[in-house]
Design a protein that fits this description.
Layout lengths: L2 E7 L4 H15 L3 E5 L12 E7 L8 H10 L8 E8 L8 H12 L3 E2 L4 E4 L6 H19 L1
Parallel strand pairs: 1-2, 1-3, 3-4, 4-5, 4-6
Helix pairs in contact: 1-4
This protein binds flavin mononucleotide (FMN).
Length: 148
């Protein structure tokens, strides 16, 4: 059993749906998991795996609900943290999935360890992004459990 902190960035709710589906998948496999819609450092366990699940808005910006958190991370040493990234975006924008790329870079710069390459979900091609996200997470869990 592992512990996950799902950190959500969402404006219109799609990433929230994805986070809920990921939570369900993890709980069904007896992992411990919390979903954070207003992420705050004090409420996050740094020994858990952080699962970033964020869309992109504006011109490549992070959703409002996660911006303050992202700023906070820039000043920290997070070398104990391991993380996964799922980005939702629309490939018709030049700044495709740039919000999730920003989060990834902020965490890497803070010393956190990315456990596998990020999943970028193009909502143009995947009208039900939670299906792709759950499949990806399940595949990572399978690989991770085999190598653990
Ligand atoms: C006003 C607006 C701006 C957007 N800008 C971007 C963008 O810069 N890059 C991108 O990849 N997707 C962009 N998108 C697409 C959203 O990221 C996508 O629709 C996503 O599924 C929204 O998820 P959410 O409901 O969790 O916020 C934009 C969508 C809107 C409505």
């Amino acid at each position: 059993m592992a512990k996950f902190e799902i950190i959500v960035g969402s404006v219109l709710g799609a990433s929230e749906y994805v986070a809920d589906a990921l939570q369900e998948t993890l709980l069904s496999q007896t992992h411990s998991v919390a979903v954070h819609l207003t992420p705050e450092l004090n409420n996050l366990d740094q020994s858990a795996t952080w699962l970033i699940c964020t869309s992109t808005h504006g011109a490549g910006d992070l959703p409002d609900n996660i911006q303050a958190f992202a700023e906070q991370l820039k000043t920290l040493n997070l070398s104990k943290v391991t993380f996964l990234v799922i980005g939702l975006g629309d490939s018709s924008y030049d700044t495709y999935c740039y919000g999730s790329i920003q989060m990834e870079n902020i965490l890497l710069n803070a010393g956190a360890k990315l456990l596998c390459p990020a999943l970028h979900i193009d909502v143009l091609n995947h009208p039900i992004p939670e299906d792709v996200a759950v499949e990806w997470l399940q595949s990572w869990l399978n690989t991770h459990e085999q190598s653990a």
